[in-house]
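RECORD TYPE: inverse folding
INPUT: structure tokens
STRUCTURE:
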């Protein structure tokens, strides 16, 4: 996803959902493992290679992982960032997924959007250094891949545009913004919004040799009980070709994915595009092609993200479903979902990696299974029997570095010694 980079940002929405979501629903001696690449990663059917994905998310929204607080100063921020990169190497990881546009802002000198307030405490204030440029250079110097992580439509954790810096695009274009669930979002149904979001992302791709562009699970916002996302005017203007608003919304997200992929390929050939969706596309009770789960959220229906299509049609280079449940979880079993995603990727060129809930390991608020430091290691053992699975990504960097329960040390000892 306390997970402010993903689920906790939408806490008000998730509080209204079934208990499923609350229970699972961000240099060693031998150095870092070889980074996974498009040609070297499992391609929807081949065996996972020696360079399989061993990644971690490094979340910046609400200072979840980094920087530890806003306004620390450039030298301390840089030191903290490098310590996380060193921790990745020490844990024998090979990839860092660095959140650089958490809330319609930037962790690099963007001509499109303001500097993030998570750096200095003041949106738009220059932090005095270039975090993304530094992260790319320092990750590569350590043999790590650096994936730049962008949130397309999230604008703010409040609904007051006047709190945004005066030059913010959302203030200059108030018709682009929808308040919903106590937060502000760009409206995915506006073509001009989609073009702007893509331009903001592509600026970073053109500036820096990032190894991949990464989206997480946020597209249309998670549902909030008793509220509706007000895109009526956009639907009236742009939805004539669709029989339902849901179909139009899914097409809006499809366009974002396809256009972003094409623009990445044109701007920097070889840079990949990956997405880490919420782990349930649809329940089988809703769609026979879905998983044998009872998810309170289904990405197809609730976030208007047809993640299965993106894999099957090979629109993206890799998918990292967030399978943040334990083996045997009654409503969403990790084993069931890992097999479903392997079946989905089979026969495609879309690489499959699995997102792992390291943050749950040892947390007394979680189910009994998460109190066992061996739970995550069993996840990797189970996935090793699925040839489509080409590696794993751990949420998130703070837990990778501290490993309070010893769960990651167990994973490294059991699976990352070669």
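DESIGNED SEQUENCE:
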């Amino acid at each position: 996803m306390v997970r402010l980079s993903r689920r906790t940002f939408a806490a008000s929405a998730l509080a209204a959902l079934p208990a499923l979501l609350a229970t699972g629903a961000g240099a060693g001696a031998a150095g870092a493992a070889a980074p996974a690449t498009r040609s070297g990663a499992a391609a929807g059917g081949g065996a996972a290679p020696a360079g399989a994905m061993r990644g971690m998310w490094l979340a910046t929204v609400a200072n979840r992982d980094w920087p530890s607080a806003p306004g620390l100063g450039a030298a301390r921020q840089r030191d903290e960032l490098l310590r996380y990169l060193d921790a990745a190497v020490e844990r024998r990881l090979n990839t860092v997924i660095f959140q650089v546009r958490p809330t319609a802002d930037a962790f690099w000198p963007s001509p499109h959007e303001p500097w993030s307030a998570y750096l200095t405490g003041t949106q738009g204030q220059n932090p005095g250094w270039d975090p993304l440029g530094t992260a790319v250079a320092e990750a590569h110097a350590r043999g790590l891949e650096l994936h730049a992580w962008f949130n397309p439509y999230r604008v703010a954790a409040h609904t007051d545009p006047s709190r945004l810096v005066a030059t913010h695009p959302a203030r200059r274009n108030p018709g682009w913004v929808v308040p919903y669930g106590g937060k502000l979002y760009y409206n995915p149904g506006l073509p001009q919004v989609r073009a702007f979001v893509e331009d903001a992302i592509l600026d970073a791709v053109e500036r820096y040799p990032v190894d991949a562009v990464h989206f997480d699970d946020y597209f249309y916002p998670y549902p909030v009980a008793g509220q509706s996302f007000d895109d009526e005017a956009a639907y009236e203007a742009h939805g004539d070709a669709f029989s339902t608003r849901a179909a139009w919304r899914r097409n809006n997200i499809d366009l974002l994915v396809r256009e972003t992929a094409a623009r990445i390929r044109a701007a920097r050939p070889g840079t990949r595009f990956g997405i880490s969706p919420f782990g349930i596309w649809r329940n089988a009770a809703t769609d026979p092609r879905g998983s044998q789960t009872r998810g309170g959220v289904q990405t197809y229906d609730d976030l208007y993200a047809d993640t299965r299509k993106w894999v099957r049609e090979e629109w993206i280079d890799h998918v990292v479903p967030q399978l943040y449940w334990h083996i045997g979880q009654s409503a969403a079993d990790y084993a069931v979902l890992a097999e479903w995603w392997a079946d989905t990727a089979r026969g495609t060129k879309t690489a499959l990696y699995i997102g792992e809930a390291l943050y749950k390991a040892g947390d007394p608020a979680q189910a009994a299974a998460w109190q066992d430091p061996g739970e995550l290691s069993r996840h990797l053992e189970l996935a090793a029997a699925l040839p489509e699975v080409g590696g794993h990504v751990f949420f998130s960097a703070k837990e990778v570095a501290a490993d309070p329960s010893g769960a990651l040390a167990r994973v490294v000892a059991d699976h990352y010694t070669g």
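NOTES: The two ends are 30 Å apart (CA to CA).
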